[in-house]
Amino acid sequence: MNQTGRQTSAISLDDAKLQLADDGFALLVGMCETGLVTRLLEVSMERSRAVTQALGTKTIGIGSAAGFQEIVQRSPGRWDIPVTPTEFGVEHQSLPWPLIADTLGTDAEHAFSGVVYSDPGSPAQFWHIDSPHVTAEHQQPHALNVMVALHDITLAMGHTELASGSHRLTNHLHNPALVSDELVYQHETTRPELLVAHTLGKVPERMSFPLTAGSCLLFDDRILHRGLGNDSTSRRSVAYFSYRKADYCENTHFESQRSIYPT
Hints:
single chain; alpha+beta; 19% helix
């Protein structure tokens, strides 16, 4: 079942914590002020122009290992360009830090950040997680992602779809039927139904939301999710800021060691 949600009014920290624990994500409407959103968008556009110009006709595959340090093609027509908080001109703690610190600890670290944009006509991604569970028992998140809408994002533009509660079901160490690499690296057979195959468990509900500029979607690194296809005539852009526990260092996000720029 696919559930298309609506943005709700601002929620309290306690309610956001409960939603994150139960559903694996929290929607924070109007979290970022207009001035911040404008700056994030301007920096994102400038960086994407510079990087795509430098990329030119160089061959780039799909996925982090097949990309470059400066740009990754997550799926056809969906581009991920790293930008640091300093380059964005923001303090990373200006984002929903109380929720991040409460979940990951006050010593939580910035892992990476940047902008993801999808071109008009780009298809939907395969379902995936951003990093795997590290113990067979369900634990608190080891990493969180904050996606910031840089403009109003309609459903046609290819919003993020999440399998609600699937952060509890993607544990390959608990469920030997799951394969870690097939969860992380966008395998065509990975979908919410797979997580409860041959069990009496309920298939996670598919959730997606249109977003207004400045709203944030915060989610557990282990939740099953995907970017949907961009059926509009406009580019869809979101900035993202990822955080990790101080003792967690695995990185499947940017794996390439090659650069688009001459050495």
